[in-house]
Every structure is written in C-alpha cells, then in structure tokens.
Amino acid sequence: MIPPARHASDNLSRAVGMAVPTVSQLRVHPPVDSLQAGSYALSDSVFSASPTRSPSSRIGIDGEFSEDSANWIKRDNSGRLTAAVPTGVPDLTQSIEASNNENNGEVVGGPPQKNSKLLKAKTTKAERRALQEAQRAAKASAKAPEQTSKPEKQANQKKYVSQLASSSVVHEKKGGDKPLEKDRKKDMPPPRMQFDNKSWVEKAKKRSVVKQTEARNRVEIFRHLPQYERGNQLSDLGSSFFQMGDMHPAVYKVGLQFLAGDIMWSNTRCISMLQAFQKVIEDYSTPPERTTLARDLTAKINASVSFLNECRPLSISMGNAIRFLKARITKLTLAQTESEAKTSLCSDIDNYIQAKIVLADKQIVIHAVTKICDGDVILTYGSSSLIEMIILRAHELRRQFRVVIVDSRPNLEGQQLLRKLVEKGLSCTYTHINAVSYVMHEATKIFLGAASVLSNGTVYSTVGTACIAMVAHAYHVPVLVCCESYKFHERVQLDSICSNELGDPDVIAKVPGRTNNCLDDWASKENLQLLNLAYDVTPADYVSTIVTEYGMIPPTSVPVIVREFGREHVLI
Amino acid sequence: MDFQVVVLAGGTSKKLAPLVSKDVPKSLLPVANRPVLSYVLDLLEQTNIKDLIVVVEGEDTDGLVENWISEAYVDRLHVQVAAVGEEVGTAGALRAIAHHLTASDILVVSGDLVCDISPGAVAAAHRRHDAVVTALFCAAPISGPPESGSSSGKDKTKKPVRHNIVGLDLTQQFLLYIAAGNEVEKDIKVQKSILRAVGKMEIHADLMDAHLYAFKRSVLQQVLNQKQSFRSLKQDVLPYLVKTQLRSEILLNGAHAEENGNEKDGYNTDKVMLSQLLANASTPSFHEVYALGPNGFPPAERKTHKCCVYIARKTKYCARLRSIQAYSDINRDVIGDASHLSGCSFSVHNNVIHPSAVLGSKTTVGPQCMLGEGSQMGDKCSVKRSVIGRHCRIGSNVKVVNSVIMNHVTIGDGCSIQGSIISSNVQLQERAVLKDCQIGAGFVVTAGSEYKGESLARK
C-alpha cells in the first residue's frame, strides 16, 4: 500500500544525521576514504547501519531496541563491517578501526568491486573475535539497566509485598518508555513491505491467504516488488474456496476477478471493491463479545483489504477509498444502533462512489470538452473510461475532430476504445506506441488518463504514458491529464522503480497470432529476465494541465487540492 | 461461502446388475475396500465442507446409507440424508429436496465420483463469472485393462468411448454446446446466435462430464419448477440452460426489473452510468457484448446468463462408477496410478496388506494389490493387481489376477480367477475357473466349473 510521503524523507534525514559522525570518523584514516570511494557496497552498508546505531545511551534505556539491532545483524548475512557497528560502545570503535585497518591492507590490491566479498571471505580469526567481543559488550550494556532496575524492583517488593504493587511498578517502568516509543511510531509509520527482504517476506507468507510461489528469473532492480507465478495462483485460490470461512463471498469474488484480470481499470476496481465492502457491511453483525462495531468491523475490513492486496496490489485510488471508509467507521458513535450504523456506512459508500467517481467524471467531461475544438486531432493512449466519455461527449456536441489511439502490448486496451469510437462514427487512427513519434506531428492535443497524481505533480499512470507525454513535449503539443481528485495522493515519487506493480511476465513473451514463440520457455533460461511493469511516472514538466472535477489546474497545484480537499474524505 | 452441497448417491443402478442389490446399493459398493461414496465425502471433507445433504433413491437403501454415514463420519461431517422415490432422476431428486436448499449457490455432486479435483475450484470459477451453472469437465479416462494381453481386452480398448460433444469458447471458460455422445449420430446442430456472438468455438469430444455442477439456486429451482418434465440434470437441465444462454427466460434477479421500471429520475441515470462504468471493465465476455446489442445500446431487452465450465488438468484423476468396466477400472487405478485416493499407505512392494491378514507359505502378493482385514490365504497362492476384501478365506494354489473380490468370499483350492468381480458372500468351490465374470452376492460356483465372460447371480 501507499506509505505517506513524509516517512521516506524523514527517515533519510535522520539516517544521514546520525551517519555523519561515523563517516567523519572513518575519514580520519585516509585508506578508508579510498575504500569508500571504491566500493559502493561498503559505504552503503555504513549508511544503512546508521539508523539502528543510535547513541549508546538510548540502547541502555531501551532493551527491546538493542535486541532489534541484534536481530538486524543476523539478518545482514553478508557480515560486513556493519555487524560491528550497531553496538556503539567505546571499545567498539577500536574494533572498527582495527578491522578497517586490516581490511584496507587486503582491499587495496583487489579490484574495488569485489571489496565487500573480499571482506566477507577474509575476516581473520582475530577480527571475528573482535566482533564477537563487541557484540557481547553491546549485550552487556543492554542488560545493564535491567539489572540495575531489578534490585529496585526487589526493594519495592519488599516494601509493598503484594503482587499488585510490583506489577504497578512494572507499569511505571514501562510507562517511562512509552511516550518515547509512541513518538517514534508517530514519526515513522510502518514502512512499506520490501519483497527483497527475506525474513519479512517469510513472515508475510505465513499470514497470507493466497498461496503464492515467487516467480523465478526476477529482474534484480525490481526485487523489492512482489512478483509471483501467475499460472497456479488462480487454481490455488480456487481450491481453497471453502477454506476461507470468514471471508465474505463478495470480497472473495472481487479478489478472484482481480487475480484473473476480469476487472482491470482503477475506477472499476475501486467501485467493485467498495461495493463488495458494502455487502460485507450489510451482512455484518457485531459478535456478542465485548467488541464494538467500529473495532470489529475495522478488523474485518482490514482482513478483506489484505486479501485483495494479495490478489493484486491495491491501486492508490483504492487506498484512498479504504482510508475514507475506515475514517467513517471510526467516526461512528456508540449511540448509534447497529442497523443505523450499517445503513449510514452503506450510504456513505454510495455517496463516495457517487460524488468522487460518477459525478466527478461528469464534471471532468464538462471541463475537458471545452478543450476539444473543431479541427482538432486528439491523441490518446491506451483506454481510459474517462477519456472515452470526453471524446463521446465532444462527438455528441458535433465538434469535428479526429482521434489517434496509441496502444501497446500486452493488454492492447486501445482496441476496445477504438471499437467503441468507430461504432459511434468517429474517425480514428490506431497505432502502436513504437510509432508515436510519427503520428505526433498530426496531434494537436493529448488526452491521457491517470492512475494517480502525486503531490509533486507527477502523473502515475499505465506504462507508456510517460513516453507519450515526453514525445508530445518535444513536439510542443499540450498534454491534458484527466484524473478524478480522489486519486490524488500526497506522496512524492521521483521514479517508477521504488513503487510500482509487476505484471505477469508471460504475457509479454507471448506474441498474439504466433503459434510457436521463441520465448516459450523463457523461465528455464537463467540469464533471461522479463519485466512487465504496470505503471510509469510522468514528471510534472511534461504535463500541461491536469483536468479534475475542481477545474483545470497546473500540475504544481496538486498539493493544494490534496491539502484543501483531501481532508474532505474524512469530513463528507 | 454461501454454498450448499448436495450429494446424489443414487440407488440400485441397473447398469451394475449383479454387483448391486437391495443390500448393497451403488453408493456402498466397495472400491478398494471402501464404499465409493466415501471418496466423495472425503474429498468434500478435505475442502472443508462440513454440512452436506446426501440424497438416496429408494426408501430401504436410505437406511443402509444413513447407518453407514453416521458410523463412519460421526464427528467429522454433518450429513443430512434424504430419501427420494425411485426413478425420479437427478432433477427429480433436487425437486424433492427443494425446501432444504437455502444458500445462493448449490454444488451438486454425484455420489459415484472418484476424483481428486477440488470442488472449490469449480465453485470459485462459478463465483468469478457469476454464472448460472458451472460444470466440471475432465479428460476422459482410458477404459479397459492397461496391458491388453487378452484378445477380448484389445477389442474393448479399440472401441472409442464417446462421452460428450462439448462446445467451448476459445478461453475454455464458457460452455456453448453440449450433447451426450450416444445421442449424436451424424451431425450436431449449433445455434447460429451463439456462434455469431462468440465468433469461434472449440468442439471437444475427449471431455467427460464429471457430474459435479455448481448451480445458482434461484435459477435451478425456477427451471425445475417451470419444466416439470425435466428428469435429469445432465440430459435436460444443463442442455436447456446452455441453449437458452443468449435468450434467457429466467429472471436473474428481481432488482433488475425494478431498475428498468423507474429509470426516469436523475439518481437512476447516475446508476446507469455507474453500471456502464462497471460494464466497461476490461474485456467483456461475449454475453455482455451480445446483451448490449450491435451498436452499444440495447435495442430490446436482451437477457443473457452464463454457463461456465471448469476443465480439470490432465494430471488429476477423475472417474465415475457407471458400469462394470468402470468399476474394475477404478479399482485398478485406486490401488495403482491414483493410489493417493485410497487413503492407505502402500508398503515397499507397492501393495497394501492388512496386518491381520494371514498368508500361507510360498504365497505371493504382487504390487498394486490390496488385502483386507482378517483375510486368510493358503499356500502357493498368487495375487496380482487385485483387491481382496475383508475376512475372505482363500485355499491353496489359487490364482487371482486383475480381479476384485469383496468381503466374506470363500474360495476353494486350485481356483483361478482372472479379470472378474466377485461380490460378497460368494462361495467358489474347488478348481473353479473364472475369466471376465461378474458374480452376484451369495452365489455358489460349483466345483470344477468354468465360466468365461458371464454374469452370474443368485436366482
């Protein structure tokens, strides 16, 4: 799902702030400096180590935290210098220096790229011992405060004798930590799942409902995104049909349709998800135990959401809709009876669909149609329900214009749009994206749909959109992106790598109309990886205007909409 | 998941003539020493279906089946056994228990199915397409003995068994045409309207209907009520639904009609827009394209419903106990190729011998054999690819090959049994020779007699 934008930058700044002293420390030794320049891996490891290496005092306070960092050492199985780093005890720096010095002696001779491997391989006995000692020291320092607190506790027990009192002391002791922890939690919301982190993935697997086998031959740079073998997923999910006792059939059906690709567009996905949730709410009854409707229903919705997310990663618009729904559920008061609460939630969902999608679309059509004049040549990419409505509306208004539909494999969505437009009597040109530079000089306006617009004005949309926008920019053709404001998100994204969706690589290996492809058994070839990206990111520079239901705005104004109207999700 | 499961256990089938009787209804016929019904019930239990309705034909068999189920599945399943009159057919059986059916979808399973295909997959396909009916099809099994050593076996294997003629769309998800193989003589008639709507159709003759259907309850009951003459699900109801899929006469849901009634006010036009938005989603199936009409707007009210199929992968095992040939085939497969179905652990010699069974000296039990509880065998016997039931007493020098011997059978010395099925309580006196025979319960084969390819039963 979508992590708020704040998190990444926040974390980064903190990390850098802490890393500074050590880096300077390392720079004291000139050979280390050269080492850093030579091996990216090493410097990277030093930086990534820094967030866990908080000042030793903090470790002392918070036993849990140091445990965490210990885990972290284990996870980082490459066993580089980082292992020694998190302990942060005075004698540790010595060990770092020692190991550094030793390493440098070896590293200078070897090629810079293999540095980290060499380090790993050639840790000498003395070095390992140094590491071990450092770790021990860290553990001891972590335990120290506990030990000091124990006598206190015992003294207290002597004073009050009763068990109750001692427990209260424990509470007090914990209470001291609590605000700190809470603050930290507020500062950084749980980071997004990174699928290249093995232990994380394994944990998630245990929880998951859909049995997923990870795809082979994955592209290295996109390893942090989930990718599974598609072939068996559907049948596996199908065969577990009766095992999902608590899953609502409506949610299950929508999940199946997501997985099978029956429902594809972001608007339709969002609507069908909301309608499924509506059914969940309708059929819901609070269990007789002490839970409240708000709490239990949120848990239920959460389970459904994670199921849907497993079927296909949620789109940003869906994330927004879920946030809205959850906010509505928490707003429910205890004074409302269950049936009242349910009807109010259902009507809220109806209103959301109505206001944010249906009416917004109508309004966007009204705005966008003014930009289609006689003699225009409209170029569009792929197929968007909104663009289709705009074009049809302009046609109804008897504007004389031509449409160029640019399409791309593997989905070839544009063909559907083409069929519909031709049926209505529009004159169309159909081409694939590789010919876009040839048809671009004809076009006078570009209309594009979007999956989301991010707060730096970046348009997150079907893969290929960025290409169209850039070619249009080179040809000085205005690019109009049509997007409902409920798809806006406060996140900032600079590239399409960090957050994206990977489609089924098999579909790009298959060429329609060809019986035997040379890529039929691509999975068996170790050196071949296929990448089927679902989305790309168009920088704001290439977008002339964004058409929303609030009017036509420049991409720079997206944060305003997010700020002013984003809160409306909650307040409707 | 709002599904109800109905198992049609049937009664005493005429096709299995000497084997089944009033005492042993078809559903209790032992396959690898377990009643055939237990395979279906175990399959359902594995897929976490705990509540089911078992429908039995005939009053007296009802008691037998109910007793057996309550004994075998006492804590495991919640089974409701319902008896219907004889000769009512599968459709009639469902009509009779209509008042028990309340869930939105119903899974109808034939009680004589031996397979390892998850019914969940069928149900999921049904739900995904919001279909009226979803049928399970699987590759037709190869019938006849595996190695055709005998000439008679060769003849049988050569004869192609035509199961069904099935028309599918190119994605193999929708059922466009169905006819039973034996009904088709020379030509098949395919509706033009369906063909035009789909464009291309695949015709398969190698698929077998596994008699596992998921029905939408409202539709099923409507059809059963309207067409009182329908007797069989497979021969009447399914073809009817397939034929009428583009000119549906059934009311899918009440809300649809209401919506058309008051379309005038503004709110509802928004609703229409919403439904259009939803209909735009990805590639619509041909049903929706057809319903929309040629120009994208409906010329008249065209109602359609979807008939789906789930085609099992070739690696799955699926067979139905419908004939004597099928009975010996299934017995052979369950202890052979599809041994995971039997639920027994096979020994190193690839056979199952109950610890209480007693073997005489120099007696060999080959691979792919099963020997039931408390059976005794004399000296110098040899058993190959056969199932022997409980408490059988077999004398010396007996040869059993490719055969099924049920419970409490007494076999005298020097008998030779090949390719035969011997029901319970049969007595074979000395030196009887049987080849490709079926012997009904309680029959006594006199000493030294020889039978070949005959079906014997007590008068």
Task: Please describe what this structure looks like.
The complex is a heterodimer of chains A (572) and B (459). Chain A is an alpha/beta fold and 572 residues long. Chain A has 23 helices and eleven strands. Chain A has a seven-stranded mixed β-sheet, with helices on both faces. With 459 residues, chain B is α/β, with parallel strands linked by helices. Chain B has a seven-stranded mixed β-sheet, sandwiched between helices. In chain B, strands 15-17-20-23-26-29-32 form a seven-stranded parallel β-sheet. In chain B, strands 16-19-22-25-28-31 form a six-stranded parallel β-sheet, with no helix packed on it. In chain B, 26% of the residues lie in helices and 25% in strands. The radius of gyration of chain B is 25 Å and the shape is elongated. The model of chain B is unreliable at 144-159, 253-267 and 295-299 (pLDDT under 50). Chain B has twelve helices and 32 strands. In chain B, strand 4, helix 2 and strand 5 (78-84) form a beta-alpha-beta unit. The A-B interface holds A 234-235, 237-245, 247, 249, 252-253, 256-257, 260-265, 267-268, 271-272, 353-354, 357-359, 361-362, 385, 388, 416, 420, 423-424 and B 1-3, 47-49, 104, 118-125, 127-128, 130, 270, 273-274, 277-278, 280-283, 295-296, 313.
Largest sheet of chain B: 7 strands, mixed
Assembly category: heterodimer
Helix content of chain A: 40-55%
Contiguous uncertain segments of 5+ residues of chain A: 1-121, 146-179
Radius of gyration of chain A: 28 Å
Largest sheet of chain A: 7 strands, mixed
Mean pLDDT of chain B: 77
- Give the largest interface pair and sizes: A-B, 40 and 30 residues
Report the structural category of chain A. alpha/beta
Overall geometry of chain A: globular
Q: Trace the largest sheet of chain B across and list its strands.
A: 5-4-1-6-12-8-13
Beginning-to-end CA distance, first to last residue of chain A: 23 Å
Shape of chain B: elongated
Classify the secondary structure makeup of chain B into a structural class: alpha/beta
What is the helix content of chain B?
A: 25-40%
Ranges of chain B where pLDDT stays below 50 over 5 or more residues in a row are 144-159, 253-267, 295-299
Q: Tell me the number of helical segments of chain B per DSSP (H or I, 4 or more residues long).
A: 12
What is the β-strand count of chain A? 11
Q: What is the mean pLDDT of chain A? A: 71
N→C terminal distance of chain B? 50 Å
